[in-house]
Amino acid sequence: MSEVQNFPTPMLSVRGLCKTFGGLKAVQDIDLDVNSGEVFGLIGPNGAGKTTCFNLITGFYTPTAGRVTFQGHDITGHSPYRIARRGLVRSFQKTNVLKALSVFENVLAGHYLSTRQTLLATFFPHAGVSRAEREARDSAARIVELMGLAARMDTPAFRLSCGELRLLEVAVALAAKPALLMLDEPAAGLNSQEAMRFGSILKSLRRSEVESIVLVEHNMSLVMEVCDRVMVMHFGSKLAEGRPEQVKNDPQVIEAYLGRARA
Ligand SMILES: Nc1ncnc2c1ncn2[C@@H]1O[C@H](COP(=O)(O)OP(=O)(O)OP(=O)(O)O)[C@@H](O)[C@H]1O
Ligand SMILES: [Mg+2]
Fold this sequence. Notes:
Number of strands: 10
Bound molecules: adenosine-5'-triphosphate, magnesium ion
CATH class of the largest domain: Alpha Beta
């Protein structure tokens, strides 16, 4: 069972979040709090509104209504770049990895994209490499090692296995030095053994690299293993919220989601 600590003020606070697309209410009146130190799971059937929530929280969509507060700052409607600079960084359901670049270059690019330093310097380092560039390279190498990809440091991303690619996607997000890391289906396509290894890496990140993680994931074993709390979405609304074992046994959740997954 995951250990839940006593959290004072939420790191991320969402109130009354709504998004409509034409006549479709994709996200309806969502409240959620993510506390410092926890892994928060966001689950629900396909089309429930999970990715839309990510897009609203991280500035890729503007909410129809509602407020998003991160570390005490109202970030509603801010640009994704500005939000990432505050330390709220997300991965994408579709890969953000550049297939022709090596593992190391991808992580370094993640760093420069988040800091807006010159990307050219990443790939064409001139004679006088600055201290900032050296530090970025050291940091990228450390993250690659942390994610268990040291042996693949110089391998082009297109040569990676599915499992390695998933680890690289997290590494690219980590390069932006997030306080809160939001991962959208990071274990998609992994077998159960790979997913469990991935889960233990995520748990170790929470202790060493990031304060909190929000995880959207369809792999229920992984969610149950790594999350301190879970929120279930269904048709854009919140259906349930609680500890993983509570949510797993909620009849409404079984009907809406877990039941469907078992079918
Ligand atoms: N840009 C958009 N324009 C119109 N409709 C959208 C847009 N983005 C999402 N939707 C719709 O909003 C609803 C929620 O989609 P969303 O991608 O958030 O679901 P999800 O929970 O992430 O699903 P999945 O598990 O399949 O990734 C869906 O009906 C989807 O078709
Ligand atoms: Mg999605």
